Amino acid sequence: DADALADADWTLETRLAAALARVGLSAEPGTPLTALSGGQRTRAALAALIFSEPDFLLLDEPTNNLDREGRRAVIDLLAGWRAGAIVVSHDRELLETMDAIVELTTLGAARYGGNWSAYRARKALELSAAHRDLADAEKQAAEVARNMQAIAERKARKDSAGRRKKARGDIPRIMLGAMKERSELTSGSNARLAESRQGQATEAVTAARERIEILQPLTVAVPSTHLATGKTVLKIENVTVGYAPDQPVLRDLSLVMTGPERIAVTGPNGSGKTTLLALFTNQLQPWQGSVRGFTDVAMLDQSVSLLDPSLSIRDNFRQLNPGADENTCRAALARFMFRADAALQIVGSLSGGQLLRAGLACVLGGGTPPALLILDEPTNHLDIDSIEAVEAGLRAYDGALLVVSHDEPFLAAIGITRRVELVAT
Questions:
Q1: Is 316 in contact with 358 (CB distance < 8 Å)?
Q2: Which residues on neighbouring strands pair with residue 102, listed in sequence order?
């Protein structure tokens, strides 16, 4: 009727097409979502988000679990978005496109103008200033200690002189009493003042050190794997595999890893990355071809399933490294920021970042780490401090490394030397 015609949105189809085009999605509006790739579905979701032209976008970890295409869609959308946006993210590639960064730490909230690179430059300056503050605080503490020692020595000399005069009988008894009372009052006042100054100096040193611990990038030392440069680590020859008959996920795949190579496995969602990892760990057998490993291997999947969630981090370490004593265990866990009671946390209670750090500590901290380490999307759901802790551990690792990841800054940070690009079938 006339009212329905008046209320109809006659621009709907045009605005729908414009929203899809804006995120680079050329599929027809009637296309089922199940027919789209993961990246295309992300673009469709972004189109729905911007369809009503909101004043502000609120995005919570928008690139988590996305393939390269999906990440690109989010970055492209924000690059062309002229309204406001607040993004919660630990994706450093995405953070490079931001106008400002607000960092939340135990020190509070701090706003930094500019993108990720500008933020890191500012943090480097803050770290340099914190080191200067620590040096000044330590110098002040040393000066207070010297002054306290000088005061104690002067008092000892005066007390010795007083005892000598008393022994000679040069001073009347009533004057000796008054002098003793004044000495005790002065000594007490000096002691309280010295203790106050020493306490303030100690607090200043502690505060400066804590600030450096927050700002200082983590560095990790791990034992060597002693992997020879020319040793064959893994060989895959003409492998075809899948889950349903006549529907192979991977076809005629061959790969050889030699020595301490660092290989990134990339490709869109659905291209077979998980299937490839299942082959490496013997969870899936090939229909044809062969998969052979020539060294010890450890795999950290996204749930770090090699750790027993009912045990503490310490007990998991001792279980995975039965030859390690308590001191070796504690030292290895401390390198990954699990010091003292933190090492006694139950694995099932850990956050995602803590869980991966615990897995790396248990695998890399033993006397002889495995010569091949396989990681499945290690930076998913991690905060930046945890990502940098993982990067530090992997940079110190001298074995062969095979990583499934879409996080380009992470791959660059750990020194990837070769890529295997899978294509969705």
A1: yes
A2: 111
Torsion of CA 88, 93, 94, 97, to 10 degrees: 130
Neighbours of 125 (CB within 10 A): 11
Q: What is the pLDDT of residue 113?
A: 94
SS3 state at 260: coil
Output the DSSP codes for 288-352.
EEEEEE-S-EEEE-TT-TTS-TTSBHHHHHHHH-TT--HHHHHHHHHHTT--GGGGGSBGGG--H
The predicted structure's pLDDT at residue 233: 94
- CA-nearest of 354, 406, 384 to 120 is 384
Please state whether 124 falls in left (phi above 0), alpha (psi between -120 and 50) or beta. alpha
Please report the pLDDT score of residue 390 as a whole number.
82
What is the sign of the dihedral through the CA atoms of 367, 372, 376 and 377? positive
At 152 the pLDDT is: 73
Q: Check residue 174 and give its pLDDT.
A: 61
| Closest to 251 in 3D by CA, of 196, 291, 282, 289 | 289
Q: In angstroms, rounded to a whole number, what is the distance separating the alpha carbons of residues 233 and 236?
A: 10
Structure tokens at 216: 């200082």
pLDDT at res. 180:
59
Nearest CA to 425 among 300, 177, 199, 244?
Answer: 244
Q: How far apart are CA 364 and CA 359, in angstroms?
A: 8
Separation between Cα atoms, residue 10 and residue 14, nearest integer Å? 8
Rounded distance between C-alpha atoms, residue 100 and residue 93, angstroms? 14
Q: Phi and psi (nearest 5°) for 67?
A: -80, -175
Q: CA-CA distances (angstroms) from residue 357 to 130, 306, 316, 327, 420?
A: 26, 13, 13, 19, 26
pLDDT at position 377 is 86
Counting Cα atoms < 13 Å in the Cβ hemisphere of 81 gives 28
Local mean pLDDT, 10-residue blocks, the chain (425 residues): 85 87 80 80 86 91 81 87 92 93 86 93 84 79 77 72 62 59 59 70 74 65 88 92 85 92 87 85 87 90 89 94 90 86 93 85 86 88 79 88 90 92 78
